[in-house]
Write a structure and sequence with these properties.
- One of its GO terms (biological process) is regulation of DNA-templated transcription.
- The chain is α/β, with parallel strands linked by helices.
- It has 3 domains: 4-117, Response regulator (Rossmann fold, 3-Layer(aba) Sandwich), CATH 3.40.50; 123-300, Rossmann fold (3-Layer(aba) Sandwich); 308-431, Helicase, Ruva Protein, domain 3, CATH 1.10.8.
- 43% of the residues lie in helices and 14% in strands.
- It contains 18 helices and 15 strands.
- The strands form 4 sheets. Strands 6-8-9-12-7-13 form a 6-stranded mixed beta sheet. Strands 2-1-3-4-5 form a 5-stranded parallel beta sheet, sandwiched between helices.
- Helix 6 (136-148) crosses helix 7, helix 13 crosses helix 15 and helix 17 crosses helix 18.
- It is flat.
- The relative contact order is 0.08.
Length: 434
């Protein structure tokens, strides 16, 4: 049975976006625009979690939380807040809210938070590949992932935060014999130590004070499929011991039960941690590491794949334009150069977030560097682009895109790039663009 979530938000555009995200993830969603209607929805439904704005046209999120507590409902609350009202969010947490989310709300952060707060995980079929990336480094990672996919060995995916490690896990699932079975993603950094066993193995009615019914855990939900353990380096020590036993014996018992169940899942894990260092420092069990890393794959950072930046940016722009229902047509040249010159410490996730922010705030169809909140890197007519701005792969991609937009008109392309026609011809020859 689907869990029911209540969104309390008077911004109808944001409310619609949140509702679609949550429905796509497998939740039943109710909505309300003010406190009185939210109270009615809570009274008439078995609400598992409330996601509420702090400030509402009638009433507010904090008084709704206080009312819920006074009724003895024990419903988890997550409050959403603008930066200017951060003090309200802090007050809400002190009163009993489980967490707060700053606006604009990002889908991935919201889903990670829900996984940590709600007993059952969100089980969804693997997403189709976002797009076919061009860089040699990513293509090599994907080639290796497809080769190891048919095997039933555990795989650890290494790489920086936001680089797309979960997409590699989904690719492995799609090319494995478990492709038609569940893919369950678990953020190990969001699981509290005292709840870990129940979260992973489930529990039976009466196992502890709040165990009012039998509840399946991650292993049961992923049965026959793939269990993806993200941020494995942050797994609580006590859970490491329990997980090791399950991987060795391939059986587990729900909390409060002596009945052994088969652990029929393939384990994929991911981390940005230096695992050898974590082992040396005693933060991660060496024997568990070798069980989880029968095979390792590395996902490169976005800065290692400059030729992917503009195609990914276009993909995210089209995706978010459709989702938010805003018409956009592309990026200004200055925005493209700014994206190519940015270091992207947050990798693909940062690019996605900046594009979403830009689409949301854009005042014209062409997104600018200001919309992206990036510094301007100017390349005006008659001026040379800053020396060292772009590596060859970045420069090739920029020239290709401008050639395409200018219909191959060399004089115009040369002016936009701030270089002479002979120089442009030489670069086109070198990059195979003629």
């Amino acid at each position: 049975m689907k869990k029911t979530l209540l969104i309390v938000e008077d911004n109808l555009i944001l409310c619609d976006i949140l509702e679609r995200w949550l429905q796509k993830a497998g939740y039943r969603v109710l909505t309300a625009i003010d406190e009185p209607s939210a109270r009615r929805k809570i009274k008439g439904n078995n609400v598992a979690l409330v996601l509420t704005d702090v400030r509402l046209p009638e009433g507010d999120g904090i008084s709704l939380l206080e009312w819920s507590i006074s009724q003895g409902l024990h419903i988890p609350f997550v409050v959403m807040t603008e930066h200017a009202s951060i003090a309200d969010a802090v007050r809400a947490v002190k009163l009993g809210a489980k967490d707060y989310l700053p606006k604009p709300v990002h889908e991935e952060l919201l889903m990670e938070l829900l996984r940590g707060l709600i007993g059952l995980p969100v089980s969804v079929p693997p997403k189709k590949s976002l797009m076919k990336r061009l860089s040699g480094a990513v293509r090599e990672t994907e080639r290796i992932a497809c080769r190891v996919a048919p095997l039933n060995c555990s795989v650890m995916i290494l790489g920086p935060n936001g680089s797309g490690k979960e997409s590699v896990a989904q690719l492995i699932q799609q090319h494995s014999g478990r492709k038609d079975k569940p893919f369950v993603a678990v953020n190990c950094g969001c699981i509290r130590g005292e709840l870990a066993a129940s979260e992973f193995f489930g529990h039976v009615q009466g196992a502890f004070t709040d165990a009012k019914k039998d509840t399946a855990g991650y292993f049961e939900t992923a049965k026959g499929g793939t269990l993806f353990l993200d941020e494995i380096g942050n797994m609580p020590p006590e859970m490491q011991t329990l997980l090791l036993r399950v991987l060795q014996e391939r059986v587990y018992c729900p909390v409060g039960s002596r009945k052994e169940l088969e652990a029929d899942v393939r384990i994929l894990s991911a981390t940005n941690e230096d695992m050898e260092r974590a082992i040396r420092e005693g933060r991660f069990r060496e024997d568990l590491y070798y069980r989880l890393a029968e095979f390792e794959i590395r996902q490169p950072s976005l800065s290692e794949c400059p030729e992917d930046i503009l195609p990914l940016a276009d993909f995210f722009r089209e995706q978010h334009s459709e989702e938010i229902r805003v018409e956009t047509s592309g990026f200004t040249e200055q925005a493209k150069i700014s994206m190519l010159s940015h270091s992207w410490p947050g990798n693909v996730r940062e690019l996605d977030n900046r594009i979403r922010h830009a689409v949301l705030l854009a005042v014209s169809p062409l997104l600018t560097h200001k919309d992206l909140n990036l510094n301007a890197t100017i390349c005006r007519t008659g001026e040379k682009c800053k020396k060292g701005l772009m590596e060859e792969a970045e420069e090739k991609e920029l020239i290709r895109k401008i050639l395409e937009e200018c219909g191959g008109k060399i004089s115009r392309v040369a002016r936009m790039l701030g270089m002479s026609r002979p120089t442009l011809y030489k670069k086109m020859e070198r990059y195979g663009l003629r």
